Amino acid sequence: MNIFAYVYGGNSAKIWGLTSRERMEKILRQKGNINVVNSIELIPQKSKVLLINCRYIMDERILNFLIKNDNTAITKGPDIDDIVAINTESDKLHNVLKLIKKEIGTNELKELTVKNVSDVASMGFHSKLKKVEKPFILDTEREDAACIAKRLYYGSYKGVTDIVTRLIWPKPAMKAVKFCVNKKITPNQVTTLSLILAILAGLLFFINQYLIGLILAWFMTFLDTVDGKLARVTVSSTKFGDRLDHGIDILHPLYWYACWAYGLIDNWDITIININQTVLMIFIFYILGRLSEGSFQLILKAPFSIFCWKPFDSYFRLIIARRNPNLIILTVSAVFGVYDIGIFLVAMWTVISSIILMIRLILAFMKKREEGQLTSWLTEIDPEIVNQKKIYKLFIY
Questions:
Q1: What's the pLDDT tens digit per position in 115-127?
Q2: What's phi and psi for 209, nearest 5 deg?
Q3: Which CATH number is 3-119's, of 3.30.1490.20, 2.60.15.10, 3.40.50.1000, 3.90.550.10?
């Protein structure tokens, strides 16, 4: 059955450059299988229909829940006046529209199931963004626009990630996202700039300009945070941009390490054999680590990242030998002028991190063979536990 969506209501206030209606229409069109219409009359017979009140901004997980559940209405609160969206069928539109206009009550639409946001709030674990966050519905008429903007921004932020991205970048990145929205800078433009900086940083490492290269490298990592958040809050993600961003993320650290290592040859008492061994060690174990991470989902069919499996894995992700933690090692080594020790420490930490990941993969395989499936510890977290264990705030929003 074809799905048609009609959005109504809302106001002209823009949050992250979009009115609530523009935001919802972009989200719906990204689904690929939903036709957004400007008039109820354009909805054909024998169709599934989504009616969405753009006075509200809803978490995309609630929208996904609505799409999957026929003849369902979502409300923000217990009062039926707070209807946010309805999934119905075209032959029932007449009565449903009467319900929206408050001409009839839900008791006259017995086939319609009314769900409060709290009824679907159990979906606290956000596997895509690797965090615990209850689905939300925001009222643009009753809630402050600045608070809504902040909520949408932090709603786009990953929970399980490295220590720099998680603890240092959030606030400055939000200011950068605001700047990009005001200047109409697109996420792909930010990603392209980060690619240029990544290339330049590597070249500077290769010619022994380590400190300048590190400045560009850290700015590149900052932009790598900005482009993703900008894409999510403006609902402007593209397949090309996503692939470009992930491709850069995977490849550029190896390029940096090689440039850093081979830049040592002319100015340090290090043989080419030692450099080759160090770079080869980094490459091999970096790839093994990535393969272990991918195998957790591809082979073990886990619906979440290996870093969301157990508390150890989530905390380990903060410091694992990925770009930002390794960049901390290289920055400290540069401050003390021991560039050679820095790259050797990166090599050793990469080996240790990948071995730990492989061990975790083996343990996960054994666990699945015993119990039949794997579950994430984040699905079991009660947000109220934050009051007892503050460290859980790293993964709860």
A1: 887 777 555 788 8
A2: -95, 65
A3: 3.90.550.10
